[in-house]
């Protein structure tokens, strides 16, 4: 796949030229399912007594133990002004303060995409699916496990754009190690903005990189639109336990002031950064997430914020994180209930696994987490495809296998069709005792859409499968990756906007020396 493919473009409504509009009309149509709207109930693992107990314990943690806001005097002043007891860098929050501040965050909000058909609503009954985030390595059948490059990053963005069931382009789909640390965020954002027309995430690794993200959004969407509208939802990890570092909080401040969404997410490995018990971990998750969202509202009341929970258990023999475990599912379900009681959107879940390959272990662990997230009321699911080796690796083959299986979540979330057609009474009357339904009118009218079907997995009889090369799922996925990249065509983008983005990236890169490590 030529690296020049990213120069392709898509018109921003109201600012595109005639050539861009003509290109948009003639470009291949990429099929993309709308974000999920659940028609099924959420699974609630805690009763009222249990929820009240954890909420009371979290308030005790905030009041008696407090949280650290490290190297951030301005944050300490904001908390002091809000009524918190600040002792050095330790902030003690009176009972109810964090919860009352969270009340100004929206229950749901719309993240805009440059293609309005790809806009997503985050919160309420919605589920938005975004790809893997953060791995320094990639893996595919041809190259094996290796450090990620910007070429890998761009190809993962292309796959995300072409994946029907994926609603969001994500953020750091892999870490392009062939570009300087202080500049790679520019190339990553440029890839999301030019190679896809789905919504995306901004950079959070330094406040100035968050500012770059906002500036590039102003070029792409128009400066007058950024602020009144949300164009980015970005990940702010808490340094668990109970520590809010100045880098992440600095990025949060940039996005909150600009009216852009943040996911405030404790990053917890149970037994290492939180207690080993489910209830103890839920107490810490609530205390941390509630404090982070509250701080975003101190910065800018009404700024979009998501209650996050990324929690894994730990293998007590090796110390390695484990995924798809029953304890993690319990924490996810409980955290979802706590988020909904705060009237906040909820982030958790993903295609999480500890496996080194897209094998049976990866499939079991991934399926456990995906199903738990669907049932647990997750609104924004990061890592929904491509995650391998505990988040160290973005796998091309697993990306398309996972993205394909996200279609199952769409189908389950629809619930059961109880319409006249869904009841199928005429079909039952037509066939009667002892018959079959293959040729009946109802089957003929519905067979194309009656059953969800994978675009990757093999359903053929053994003989046909064997004659075609007896390919396993990884081989099938590898062929799917090649096919998708070969068919990729970038969504059109107004030439003036593309030039503005490229010029901004070039100027910012030239403004400072490369920094590696």
Structure notes:
This protein has 517 residues and is of the alpha/beta class. 43% of the residues lie in helices and 13% in strands. It contains 18 helices and 19 strands. The protein has helices spanning 18-26, 48-65, 73-82, 97-102, 150-162, 184-195, 207-221, 246-257, 278-299, 326-341, 360-375, 396-413, 420-423, 425-431, 441-446, 462-467, 473-487, 495-510, and strands at residues 36-37, 67-69, 85-87, 90-92, 108-111, 120-123, 126-129, 137-140, 144-147, 233-238, 243-244, 261-269, 305-308, 310-314, 321-322, 346-347, 380-381, 387-388, 393-395. The strands form five sheets. Strands 10, 12, 13, 14, 15 and 16 form a six-stranded mixed β-sheet that branches. Strands 3-4-2-11 form a four-stranded mixed β-sheet. The chain has a four-stranded mixed β-sheet with strand order 9-8-19-18. The longest helix is centred in the middle third of the chain and has 22 residues, at 278-299. It is globular and about 80 Å long.
- Uncertain residue ranges: 1-16
Number of strands: 19
The amount of beta strand, in percent, is 5-15%
Largest sheet: 6 strands, mixed
The assigned structural class equals alpha/beta
Report Rg.
Answer: 24 Å
Report the average pLDDT across residues.
94
Backbone shape? globular
Helix content: 40-55%
Instruction: Calculate the terminal CA-CA distance, rounded to whole Å.
Output: 29 Å
Count of individual helical segments: 18
């Amino acid at each position: 796949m030529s690296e020049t493919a990213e120069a392709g473009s898509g018109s921003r409504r109201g600012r595109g030229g005639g050539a861009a509009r003509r290109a948009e009309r003639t470009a291949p149509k990429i099929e993309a399912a709308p974000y999920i709207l659940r028609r099924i109930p959420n699974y609630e693992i805690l009763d009222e007594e249990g929820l009240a107990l954890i909420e009371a314990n979290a308030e005790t943690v905030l009041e008696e133990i407090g949280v650290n806001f490290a190297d951030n005097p301005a944050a300490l002043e904001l908390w002091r002004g809000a009524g918190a007891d600040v002792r050095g860098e330790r902030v003690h929050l009176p009972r109810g303060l964090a919860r009352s501040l969270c009340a100004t965050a929206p229950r749901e909000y719309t993240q805009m995409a440059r293609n309005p058909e790809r806009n997503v609503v985050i919160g309420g009954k919605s589920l938005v699916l975004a790809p893997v985030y953060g791995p320094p390595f990639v893996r595919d059948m041809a190259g094996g496990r290796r450090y990620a490059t910007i070429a890998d990053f761009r190809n993962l963005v292309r796959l995300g754009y072409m994946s029907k069931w994926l609603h969001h382009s994500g953020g750091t789909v892999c870490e392009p190690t062939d570009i300087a640390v202080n500049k790679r965020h520019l190339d990553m954002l440029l890839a999301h903005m030019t190679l896809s027309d789905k919504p995306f995430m901004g950079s959070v690794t330094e406040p100035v990189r968050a500012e770059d993200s906002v500036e590039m959004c102003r070029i792409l969407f128009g400066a007058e639109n950024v602020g009144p509208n949300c164009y980015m939802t970005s990940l702010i990890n808490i340094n668990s336990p109970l520590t809010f570092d100045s880098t992440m909080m600095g990025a949060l401040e940039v996005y909150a002031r600009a009216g852009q969404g943040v996911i405030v997410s404790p990053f917890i490995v149970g037994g290492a950064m939180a207690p080993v018990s489910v209830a103890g971990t839920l107490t810490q998750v609530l205390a941390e997430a509630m404090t982070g969202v509250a701080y975003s509202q101190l910065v800018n009341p009404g700024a979009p914020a998501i209650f996050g929970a990324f929690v894994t258990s730990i293998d007590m023999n090796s110390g390695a994180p484990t995924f798809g475990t029953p304890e993690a599912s319990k924490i996810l379900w409980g955290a979802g209930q706590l988020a909904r009681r705060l009237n906040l959107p909820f982030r958790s879940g993903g295609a999480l696994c500890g496996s080194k390959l897209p094998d049976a272990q990866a499939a079991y662990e991934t399926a456990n987490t995906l199903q738990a997230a669907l049932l647990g009321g997750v609104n924004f699911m990061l890592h929904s495809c491509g995650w391998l080796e505990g988040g160290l690796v973005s796998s091309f083959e697993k990306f398309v296998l996972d993205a394909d299986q996200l279609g199952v979540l769409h189908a389950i979330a629809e619930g059961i069709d109880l319409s006249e057609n869904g009841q199928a009474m005429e079909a039952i009357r037509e066939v009667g005792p002892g018959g079959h339904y293959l040729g009946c009118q109802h089957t003929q009218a519905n067979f194309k859409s009656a059953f969800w079907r994978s675009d990757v997995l093999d359903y053929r009889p053994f003989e046909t499968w064997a004659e075609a090369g007896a390919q396993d799922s990884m081989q099938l996925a590898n062929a799917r990756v090649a096919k998708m990249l070969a068919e990729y065509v970038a969504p059109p983008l107004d030439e003036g906007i593309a030039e503005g983005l490229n010029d901004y990236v070039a100027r910012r890169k030239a403004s400072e020396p490369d920094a590696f490590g």
